């Protein structure tokens, strides 16, 4: 074993959360080393290359670049390149029957009238009442997050601030934290559901994608944010892989140290600091920020954390894994302009937990994807799978290969039915399951998408930055309630501002 390397802070993991924090640290010339197990940066927002083609592995959509939005702030502070981004004004195309196409965009009127044309039994005025209220509250929620420095909550006093801070009082947001979406919007939903009960399914599927939970359990504040998610949508050149690689290379350019292929195996307290052990080196540091899921962190340092904290972590259950499909599509012409599509199926894919498939096409002529002509497009398909069920059914299956063949077949049928005559050929480049995610991101049992948003999640259910060990912090999507990439970047920004950017102050 080589000599022990010294650094002030070790960041574990270079998914979006770890990358964002590394970039901020490099920009501010902090002494740190980031250690990433995989050979590529990005974690769940990474990519893989087969033949010449590049496929996004998991996350595909970006939000938060509006004026003073978290990603806008992050880009400005780090000097990242906005020109690699383009707005996706077509938003998300929602297909409640797997064929029809409703446009969920920033243009609220279009979204309302598209819905009224599909759900002909529902009065357009009732849809307007519901969605105008959702849209207004969504705007207020982002305004509050922009002005509220205590997210994710860190101390008990931070939780209290959610109810006492001026901005929350002024915007009257407290009831949206304490009531579920279904409860809060009961009055608006009643005539709609009475006219067409299928509408409940639309809301459920839309909400599951961003909140990982049902309208009955999701707090109204997170519910409105997940339903108006497509209001501000962006595509990065090269897709999500392009986004992660841009932050990674920018961090290296600013002399930040991010080491790939270096998995952290163990952490222990030593000489008033920590010793971090990988299969290559030993590092000694004063501070640790773990950006890997909380269950993984706990396993790296089983004796470090107090019993109470360990019990709290074990109690938190992440329900979902993902099943994904990666395809190369050949269209007759350049194919659809719209990139993101949510299809609602009559029944879920075999053993999967959601009845919707999310299709993400790459942009036309995205050179970075390695496409040979404008007719070719890459497609990432994803859906939810209940992990308890997966690990129950999987051992009784003949092999995971058979299961993947079934999923491929079902996905191909949905792709062909949806794109119909525009499509010439569908070629599969791989199917991902929870074990694939565990292999490439090390996430415990392949849990993805964070912790489902529960009503009480604002009141201490999620752990926030704190591990209970002095100078040992955590960020990432299992530490806060929120929506994927935008929330883990918000978490990284707030940890930097509240703790790491303040040289002398420690908690
Ligand atoms: C199928 C799917 C679709 C999604 N779609 C979207 C979307 O469209 N938009 C959106 O905003 N969000 C989406 N999400 C959620 C989003 O991708 C994640 O919430 C986010 O990327 C999590 O980032 P993270 O940094 O917290 O964790 P991770 O991405 O898990 O990153 C953690 C990193 O740590 C590394 N690591 C783990 N253990 C170790 C170790 N011991 N030593 C060193 N390194 C280690 C991993 O390799 C990984 O790179 C999606 C997720 C999935 C799975």
Textual characterization of the structure:
Helix 1 packs parallel to helix 18. The strands form 5 sheets. The protein has a 7-stranded mixed beta sheet with strand order 8-7-16-17-18-15-19, sandwiched between helices. Strands 10-3-2-14-20 form a 5-stranded parallel beta sheet. It has a 4-stranded mixed beta sheet with strand order 1-13-12-11, with no helix packed on it. The chain has 18 helices and 20 strands. It has 507 residues and is an alpha/beta fold. The relative contact order is 0.19. It binds flavin-adenine dinucleotide. Flavin-adenine dinucleotide binds next to helix 1, strand 15 and helix 18. Flavin-adenine dinucleotide (FAD) binds next to helix 1, strand 15 and helix 18.
Overall geometry comes to: globular
Major pleated sheet: 7 strands, mixed
CATH superfamily heading of the largest domain = FAD/NAD(P)-binding domain
**Helix-strand makeup class:** alpha/beta
The CATH topology of the largest domain corresponds to FAD/NAD(P)-binding domain
Mean pLDDT over all positions: 90
**Tally the helices: what do you get?**
18
Spatial strand order of the main sheet: 8-7-16-17-18-15-19
- CATH architectural name of the largest domain: 3-Layer(bba) Sandwich
Task: Tell me the helix content.
Answer: 25-40%
CATH class call of the largest domain: Alpha Beta
Distance between the termini: 33 Å
**Poorly predicted segments:** none
Percentage of residues in strands: 15-25%
Please state the CA-atom Rg, rounded to the nearest Å.
22 Å
